[in-house]
Design goal:
377 residues, alpha/beta, TIM Barrel, 6-stranded parallel beta sheet, 3-stranded parallel beta sheet, 9 strands, globular, binds S-adenosyl-L-homocysteine
């Protein structure tokens, strides 16, 4: 089934399910239950089985998976939620990814770049609020050479020695990754976007290749970064088979972190008219990923909170254990527009954090002051 098919089915079943009392709901298909049990016990399925699990989505199966995933997450991370302060350091990008609002050829995007002082100020504000991880994310902006990033990293590490720094700056050379690691970077987020090379080719211009993306991820892991991959749910042309390939990649690559969120169209991109991914399928996949990798650091992303007003709470209840409030200066928030209607672009960092603390408390979870490293069992 393709993404549109999955989406229609989800909408239909959501409506049907909410009209049924618990007694009237059909028993979950035996095969599906078997798959979920196998996944829970072995943390692994075949490609075909992952595909059946995705095609077999029902609200009931989602609840069953979420229950198992939450229990597993609880046994490792308790009811704590880790926070990461996201600092969007530049929206200047040399790439032209077809889905991304800050792509090079979007001439309506007002470009900005934070100075080193701006970034250190964001960290200072974040530290005072209790953040112990800073995520520096941006487009592939040539200004941020290794030398400049080394200076930035050593300044952050000097001032905030008890903090972790995560970089999310796209594809660089092995030598560059090594230099940044030596300068103090602890983690690197580089979503693989899709584990299917042909699908990858339909989302990116020719200069970008699936092979290089994966080579980068391997290098990052070898160097010693806590490494994160991930993908968009409902991206243009995505099928259940593609998602199964994503899950298989996660199972075999074993990242420390995994960022997934719904695709949301940006009007100034090639896929501006494509429908968005759903919160339901995203949450379903969050549960599956928790069962594949019990200790994985799994964020309930801003995109999930954008597509559904209670998306981040639903993500945590499905097995996620990280949220990433925005620490960027308010003046640039709207300009880092990866997709339309991104939430939290007008609030001070303190307000964002307060709001998230309340949201987490409302579902029985607690935001903690902690670097939030990967729990190696
Ligand atoms: N240049 C960095 C950061 C990219 S932006 C890099 O290459 O890793 C971070 C993530 O936002 C991307 O990896 C992508 O998965 C996600 N993203 C981009 N456009 C999006 C959209 N339209 N909808 C949802 N997520 C999007």
């Amino acid at each position: 089934m393709d993404a549109l098919g999955i989406r229609r089915r989800l909408l239909f079943e959501k409506a049907a399910d909410s009209n049924l009392t618990a007694k009237e709901q059909p028993a979950m298909k035996k095969d599906l239950l078997k798959l979920i049990d196998k996944l829970e016990q072995t943390h692994s399925l075949t490609l075909e089985e992952y595909e059946s699990l995705i095609d077999g989505y029902t609200p009931q199966a989602a609840r069953c998976l979420a229950q198992k995933a939450s229990a597993l997450r609880q046994s490792i991370y308790g009811n704590t939620v880790y926070i990461r302060g996201l600092i969007e350091i530049s929206n200047i990008c040399k790439n032209d990814c077809y889905y991304c609002g800050i792509r090079k050829s979007n001439s309506s995007c007002r470009r900005y770049r934070l100075t080193l002082e701006d970034i250190l100020d964001c960290c200072g504000q974040g530290y005072a609020l209790g953040f112990r991880t800073f995520v520096l994310q941006g487009g592939e902006d040539g200004f941020f050479t290794d030398e400049i990033l080394e200076r930035l990293l050593s300044a952050i590490k000097n001032k905030f020695p008890d903090c972790a720094v995560t970089l999310s700056l796209g594809e660089r050379t092995r030598e560059s990754y090594q230099r940044l690691f030596d300068a103090g970077a602890d983690r690197y987020l580089l979503r693989h976007e899709t584990a299917d090379p042909i699908h990858y080719g339909s989302l990116h211009p020719r200069e970008l290749s699936y092979e290089n993306r994966i080579a980068c991820l391997k290098q990052l892991k070898e160097i010693g970064y806590q490494t994160g991959c991930g993908f968009m749910v409902g991206s243009p042309g995505q099928t259940a088979r593609h998602l199964a390939e994503d899950l298989k990649l996660i199972e075999t690559f074993r990242p420390h972190m995994c960022g997934i969120g719904p695709f949301i169209p940006h009007q100034a991109t090639v896929y501006g008219d494509h429908p968005p991914g759903t919160a339901e399928l995203t949450c379903y996949l969050l549960s599956v990923i928790r069962l594949i990798l019990p200790s994985v650091l799994l964020p309930a992303t801003t995109a999930l909170g954008t597509i559904d007003p209670r998306g981040r709470e639903k993500g945590i209840l499905s097995g996620a254990n990280v949220v990433m409030p925005n620490l960027s200066p308010i003046s640039v928030r709207k300009k880092y527009e990866l997709y339309d209607n991104k939430i939290c672009t007008g609030d001070e960092a303190a307000e964002c954090l307060q709001c998230l603390k309340k949201r987490m408390a409302s579902i029985g979870y607690q935001i903690v002051i902690d670097r939030g490293d990967y729990a190696s069992l």
